[in-house]
Specification:
17 helices; disordered N terminus; seven-stranded mixed beta sheet; alpha+beta; elongated; five-stranded mixed beta sheet
């Protein structure tokens, strides 16, 4: 029943009945005032006649390579902005009108066209109603040549002048009117060739605000980092062994500021070196045997032993069993979350650098810099409406399925992934129509400021005195691993036969385990006591790879769960502006 219900919702979301228009336009008067920077002040007087009761009209204004601002309408209205379009919904939802009704619409249209032509749709070709009368006036900043003016009237793609209008060119303005009603989807387009340099590049008045905002946000990010997050100089200390009382997971936390699955996996060998477990490993799987219960006071080592060995696998467990255990997956994931909590990081990092207020402020400054950059990218005219196309009725239904599912619904996840991919691919060409290439320098500066804020945010965590001592020790150990001479290593193994294996988990979290293993290719080392007779250092990478794979979410371990339910001059219409509308 649930499947049928969801299928019905999806079907409804894609199928909408077509609505016939219930009005026509008696008079459509347009005045265009153009300045040297190709700012066009548009005034439209639209006299409509409604044959049936309606709330009002919707006026759609295209914004390809342009943007619309300073909107003013004679009636109450709402604005919806999407990539490439501004829609004005004019009228009141609780009022009905019938018969004659007039609308006055004014807006500023900033064009990004060629500097040697003016190409504009005086009346767009997207009106699906007849227009009985139309008058237009175009006022330009300087005198123009009448021979360079072309008018096209008709449906989209109609070329040349067909004689359905009378117009005159005098000095710096063009005026005219149609002599035959425009049928649905017919419009008026004007194209004027200009001498080079007639138009000049525009400079937004908002650029100073953007520059000031970027400067303030970047400076504040830097100052907060400099005061609370800047690390003091750390000198590597020549070390042949890890710091005392520090596990390999601790080493990863101080070195990378976070314990990952790699750090937790390294504890398997770390515990083996302490004598608590033995390891068998090959390319396909591994087996862990418990030698004795953990007797130390490290709560995370104790947790690792408890998670690995319990119930019927109290004495031994293999990778296959762990991979298919819901309890293991959930417990291991919870351990990773717990070990990265603030109270445990406080062992190695300054508490002031982990202050929630500071982190929130740094994130806000980063978002502000990114937003200002996007604002500049879209020529100071960006709003939530540009990303509204990523949300739809069917997507909301899928999100509901995900929220109602006990686990992750694979079908819904696949649908959402494909949906967002398709929306993003369609977003790119639309975005390119809105982006103003003249703002490239501002965008580059904005990206640099955003990058600085991001780096400051990322580097906020500051080691405390103890953390600096440990980090210096680890850096020295890493350096030794990378450059140690064979004779030195042979001497260390002679003094401590288990030396290679004791360093191995630390080399792994420091990212130099491959180099450490390679250093011993020509050095004789004995099997570790915990190797159960078959573990060789060449198997270490297999062990880590296989163990990390069992901690990944699968259907078997409950990390991913299937749901029980299953489950788009020139020619007419070729210039800027124009568009159309409908009733509502």
């Amino acid at each position: 029943m649930r499947t049928i219900f969801l299928s019905l919702l999806f079907f409804i979301s894609f199928v909408f009945p077509l609505k016939a228009e219930n009005f026509f336009i008696e008079n459509y008067n347009v005045v265009l005032r153009v300045n040297r920077e190709q700012n066009v002040w548009v005034s439209e007087d639209i006299d409509t006649v409604f044959t049936q009761s309606s709330h009002g009209i919707i006026r759609d204004i295209p914004m390809a390579h342009s943007h619309v601002s300073d909107i003013n309408v004679s009636e109450p209205y709402t604005v919806n902005r999407t990539l490439g379009m501004v829609s004005l919904k004019i009228g009141k939802a609780d009022e009905w009108i019938r018969g004659k009704h007039s609308y006055k619409i004014n807006f500023q249209h900033l064009l990004r066209g060629k500097d040697n032509e003016f190409y504009y749709n005086i009346i767009g070709t997207d009106w699906n109603v007849p227009i009985n009368n139309a008058h237009f006036i175009v006022v330009l900043p300087q005198k123009i040549n009448p021979d360079d003016v072309g008018i096209s009237i008709g449906k989209y793609g109609t070329e040349g002048f067909n004689g359905n209008a009378l117009y005159e060119v005098r000095d710096n303005y063009v005026s005219g009117y149609i002599t035959k009603p425009l049928q649905p989807y017919e419009g008026i387009t004007i194209r004027i060739k200009m001498p080079d340099g007639y138009f000049v590049s525009h400079k937004s008045e908002k650029i100073r605000i953007v520059w000031l905002g970027l400067l303030i946000c970047t400076l504040m990010s830097f100052l907060i980092w400099h005061i609370f997050g800047r690390d003091e100089h750390i000198t590597p200390v020549v070390s042949f062994y890890p710091p005392p009382d520090i596990t390999s997971a601790d080493a990863e936390q101080i070195y990378t500021e976070k314990v990952s699955k790699r750090g937790l996996a390294s504890l398997i060998v770390y515990l083996a070196n302490l004598g608590y477990i033995s390891i068998k490993s090959d390319k396909s799987d591994f087996m862990l045997k418990k030698i004795s219960d953990y007797e130390g006071d490290n709560e995370f080592l104790s947790a690792v032993m408890r998670i690995l060995f319990h119930d019927k696998y109290e004495k031994a467990v293999c990778g296959y069993h762990l991979k298919n255990s819901k309890e293991f997956y959930k417990s291991w994931k919870a351990l990773e979350t717990n070990i990265n909590r603030k109270k445990y990081k406080g062992r190695f990092f300054e508490k002031s650098s982990m202050n929630f207020v500071l982190w929130f402020l740094m994130m806000a400054l980063l978002i502000a810099n990114v937003s200002l950059t996007v604002f500049t990218l879209f020529d100071y005219d960006f709003s939530f409406g540009y990303i509204a196309s990523f949300f739809s009725f069917e997507m909301i239904i899928v999100l509901m399925v995900l929220l109602l599912s006990k686990g992750i619904n694979i079908a819904a996840m696949i649908y959402l992934s494909l949906f967002f991919l398709a929306q993003f691919m369609s977003f790119i060409p639309q975005a390119l129509e809105v982006v103003n290439p003249e703002n490239t320098p501002q965008v580059i500066i904005g990206c640099v400021c955003s990058l600085i804020s991001f780096i400051c945010f990322k580097e906020m965590l500051k080691p405390n005195w103890y953390g600096r001592q440990i980090l210096g020790h680890l850096l020295g150990l890493k350096r030794f691993i990378e450059v140690a001479e064979k004779k030195r290593l042979e001497k260390m193994v002679e003094e401590n036969p288990e030396y290679f294996y004791q360093i191995l988990p630390f080399a792994y979290v420091l990212g130099v385990s491959d180099k450490w293993i390679k250093q011993f290719e020509n050095i004789a080392i004995s099997q570790p006591e915990w190797g159960d007779g078959v573990f060789h250092f060449s198997n270490f990478n297999y062990l880590m790879k296989n163990f990390n794979s069992v901690t990944m979410p699968t259907i078997a371990n409950g990390g991913i769960q299937r749901s029980s339910s299953s489950g788009g001059g020139g020619f007419s219409g070729g210039g800027y502006g124009g568009g159309g509308g409908s009733s509502w």
